[in-house]
Amino acid sequence: MKCQRPQYFHLPPHTHTTRTMHKTILGIEGTAWNLSAGIVTETEVLAEATATYQPATGGIHPREAAQHHATHIASVIRKAIKSAGDAQIDGIAFSQGPGMGPCLRTVATAARALALSLNVPLIGVNHCVAHLEIGRWQCRIDDPVMLYVSGANSQVLAYRGGRYRIFGETLDIGIGNALDKFARHAGFSHPGGPKIESEALAATEYISLPYSVKGMDFSFSGLMTAAKEALKKHSLANVCFSLQETAFAMLVEVTERAVAHTEKNDVLLAGGVGANTRLREMLEIMCKDRGAKFHVPEKRFMGDNGTMIAYTGLLMLASGESLSIEESMVIPDYRPDQVDVTWK
Ligand code: AMP
Ligand code: MG
User: Fold this and answer.
1) What is the Cα Rg of the chain in Å?
2) How far is the CA of 176 from the centre of ligand 1 (A)?
């Protein structure tokens, strides 16, 4: 699908050099269950193709997901290049981390091979930073506090002093994993988040569950275990509702404190759990109270997508960032605050 980059979009001033003109970057995402290739130029998204691994039973199995990516990666890349009108590619960006080791290695191998065969630069992109960059672009904002809530990750990020700093994060599992594990226990298939959301609509009562914010961090595994226990005494709808209310209140509290501390005026939501209407509603209320603006990117840019990797790769390449093959090893625990934001 070809989508016009909106009018508001402009690259940061220092990237407006002849060096950056007419670059077309292909980005590959495959940190977990979504394999996706996106192609962008400075002015538009040319194409995106995706293949999603669906576990037969249980949660995501890293080696099965990697096998899925290995099986589909050639066709996903071919499809993206074809729908971009066989555009000439000037650089290959890939998700270097964080993510599941076997999945990351599969994508990195394809990215290296492609960069070598096309003789173009290879760019290693931090997946969390890419969520933030695509959100900034999509929502026309420069400097947000971002709440990133996905299966494996839960972080509150904001720019300060040349890096995207982590103001708060989960001390154990990601919010999405917590929801999925509870949902599996309750008999729902993967992914559980949307099923919990619809079940919660039938709730009649709030049940008290452990609320765990420590400093600026939060934790979900105790809450998830308590929710499983609560199922012995309470209805599924009431537990789903209470689980959401408690977990989301924790996320919103930390986001609010990051907004207060940084004095930023925009809040950006990213990650698969960001699809949840109740979470959005709670963030919206908090932002309204604080006089901040709440931003949600288009759905296809909220979850994992190749376009965000291509777009961040483009920004990075424009500021002179690329990797040799030797430097391109994957980093399963890659933190966004390890990245120097040279393009902002
Ligand atoms: P991601 O890791 O960003 O691909 O996001 C996947 C996670 O988002 C899974 O844990 C899903 O259960 C969760 N998710 C998707 N839709 C919803 C929803 N409507 N409410 C809560 N969680 C959701
Ligand atoms: Mg993600």
Assistant:
1) 20
2) 5
Predicted TM-score of the model (pTM): 0.92
Q: Cα(6) to centroid of ligand 1, in Å?
A: 27
Q: Please work out whether the CB of residue 30 comes within 6 Å of at least one atom of ligand 1.
A: no
pLDDT value for 9: 38
For residue 256, CA distances in Å to 5, 6, 250 come to: 31, 29, 10
Q: Hey, where are the domains in the chain?
A: 25-133+302-338, 143-300
User: What is the average pLDDT across 304-318?
Assistant: 97
Contact 211, 250 (CB under 8 A): yes
Nearest ligand to residue 99 Cα: 2
Whether 11 and 292 have beta carbons less than 8 Å apart is answered as no
The two beta strands, 213-214 and 217-218, are antiparallel
Give yes or no for residue 199 CB within 6 A of ligand 1: no
Q: Evaluate if residue 1 carries a pLDDT over 70.
A: no
Percent of the chain with pLDDT over 90: 90
- Does ligand 1 lie within 6 Å of residue 304's CB atom? yes
Q: Does domain 25-133+302-338 have CATH number 3.30.70.120?
A: no
Q: Residue 303 and residue 287: Cα distance in Å, rounded? A: 22
Distances from the Cα of 84 to the Cα of 5, 20, 37, 39, 74, angstroms: 14, 19, 11, 7, 15
**25-133+302-338 and 143-300 agree in CATH topology:** yes
Ligand 1 pocket test: which of 132, 273, 279, 309 has the largest number of ligand atoms within 8 Å of its C-beta?
Answer: 273
Structural class in CATH, domain 143-300: alpha beta
Q: What is the pLDDT of residues 9-51, one digit of tens each?
A: 334 433 333 344 479 999 999 999 999 999 999 889 999 999 9
Could you tell me the distance, in angstroms and rounded to a whole number, from the CA of residue 271 to the centre of ligand 1?
7
